[in-house]
Amino acid sequence: MSQGLLDAQNGEPRDKALSGLTRRAFLKFSASVAVLGSGGLILGFSLPARSEGDVRKTVIGGDGVEPAQSAVFAPNAFVQIDTSGKVTLIIPKVEMGQGVYTSIPMLIAEELEVPLDSVTIDHAPPNEKLFFDPLLGGQLTGGSTSIRYAWEPMRRAGATARALLVNAAAQQWQVDPATCHAQNGQVMHAATNRTLAYGQLTEAAGKLPVPGDVTLKDPKDFKLIGTTARRLDSPEKVDGSAMFGLDVRLPGMVYAVIVNCPVFGGKLAAVDDSAARTIPGVRQIVKIDNGVAVVGDHTWAAKRGAAALKISWDEGAGASVSIKTIVGDLERASQGEGAVARKEGDVTRAFAGAKTRVDAIYRQPFLAHATMEPMNCTVHVQQDSCDIWVGTQVPTRARDAGAKITGLPADKVVVHNFLLGGGFGRRLEVDGVTQAVKVAKQVNAPVKVTWTREEDIQHDMYRPYYYDRISAGLDEHGKPVAWQHRIAGSSILSRFAPSTIKNGVDPDAVEVAAALPYDLPNQLVDYVRQEPDAIPTAFWRGVGPTRGTFVVESFIDELAVQTKTDPVQYRRDLLGKSPRALNVLDIAARLSNWGSALPKGQGRGVSVMHAFGSYLSMVAEVTVEQGEVRVNRVVCAVDCGMFVNPNTVEAQIQGGVIFAITGALYSEVTIERGRVLQSNFTDYRILRIHEAPEILVHLVKSGEAPGGIGEPGTSAAMPAIANAIYAATGKRLRDLPVGRQLQSV
User: Fold this and answer.
1) Which fold has domain 245-316+375-450?
2) Which Gene3D superfamilies does the UniProt entry name for this protein (predicted)?
3) What is the pTM for the complete model shown?
């Protein structure tokens, strides 16, 4: 399997490798079939995500001359089949541990009728036109959309390739294509016991007209989809040969460590670098607007040089910002009416007629991403080109950032993408790329810019601080008849994708809150945008559903307690119109032995979630002792529609739960004098391996369309843990992280 776009032997980009045709030339046409001089067949399918569209054919000569472009909606895959029968998928999503480098090839292999381990994959280069994801509005990986995006287009791509190969074989044998079938990388004619391998058919298949439509397999005939498959990227990760951004090595490369202004929005005033220049291995000191980079022969020299700098900062207005002022601003903002995200019935009248009213305020802190692979980017800026080696979720935005800083045309900026050592939304941002290009413009060599862990945590783009006011009016039976939820916080989408903001509502900020699975007759959900002064905010493993599910599911638990009703039963009574949600709740309750006795100091908590097209219910079992929480066991029932690789789903839930435990119990970013107080894992605590609970994942078999799975586990786990703590202690903790609150209660 091909990992990364850098040849490990000579450091040269692999952009020139497609049978004599440069990748850039290859990607400039929207071909569905191209016959190369080597006799290979390249299939690049131009299929819209929501409709079948037309597939067109372009023929190129063996000299690699660029063909005329043809109109395309948004291609979803490029598949290369060479004369040996090797299948290469240029994959439109990036791998950051979520398993798409296995599950997406499974979609192709299923319909193409080839063994999974025969598919090799390569990163897609930046090309918004070719690799546009309509679910996300661009070429990016995030939002738990990879399989939802790829489900039909990738299968259709494989099926179209199979049809061409079958037709080519039928023509050669002069038989009806209906009497032929594909199997295990070859076409077979059972009546005469003849076979032809795919590699023998590529040239002939490339000369055939592409069918405008193909029949996809019935799910009952799937051989790969839905079965357990080993990760294709595991062997290279295990033996250390897998290429991450941090692994890039180039001839003549130098290394830089950055020191950013400790105050958000601050600038460099002056620097005394005399001591740094005396350190062996330090080559150069580079000044940029908000920081200083020390360039050396290796990272250790650059790090030592950075520590020796004496820097004066122009801190600016950001120096007056503190977490206290930020929360105070949010509290005041939450007292005013917001933009309406959902309105049903007459909430005012329903509250007036309610027997009981329950009010609560929930607060959730800023959070850093703290990916295991620290932020890094390698850049080589030359007079007429800029090469960027990085692991990014947004290759097109990374390219555009390089073009903007260098002033070069976009086609002169090449992004070489790699495996990501954790994304979680952090690598949806290009601030690290922008900074690295600024440094590289002043260095006459390829330069790798690496952020230390302290720089990473103190100059992250943070999960926003959210302040929620939520109220319910209950009838005489304890059932909600009025529901009001106001969310105050930063709008990430106003910066990241401003066209998604409609009537003042950030759809991410209100996700889950504005589309509950529960039957609530009178609802008002509104949103107040309140930006924290100078603090940059960004996505954090499912921002909207993560924060929204915590508030809603914690508050539903409060209502169950208020009415002296079992929390599972209380939810059951409200889920009559959502059978999939009710089903996962029942499964999770049964598998967790809900209702059975636990020792003193232990408790179980439950949550239900519908987001990303998936339904989850989770039961967490915790022990609380001397102000410390240990999560002992988590049971999760998942209905994500049709799943591709159950191993991937299980792993994603497990990782999401562990990520959630960290966020629920420990993690928060606090600010004083415009500075982030946390700096490393010593004070930004991460769950340790010995603290990880037993996690049981049950997958519901379903014929529904696939849902997302990367973020739901994190979203559902936080309220389940908080509710379990209440069951164990009788203390309702509405602020995260709950671990800090327990110690202070």
Assistant:
1) Aldehyde Oxidoreductase; domain 4 (3.30.365)
2) Aldehyde oxidase/xanthine dehydrogenase, a/b hammerhead, Aldehyde oxidase/xanthine dehydrogenase, molybdopterin binding domain
3) 0.89
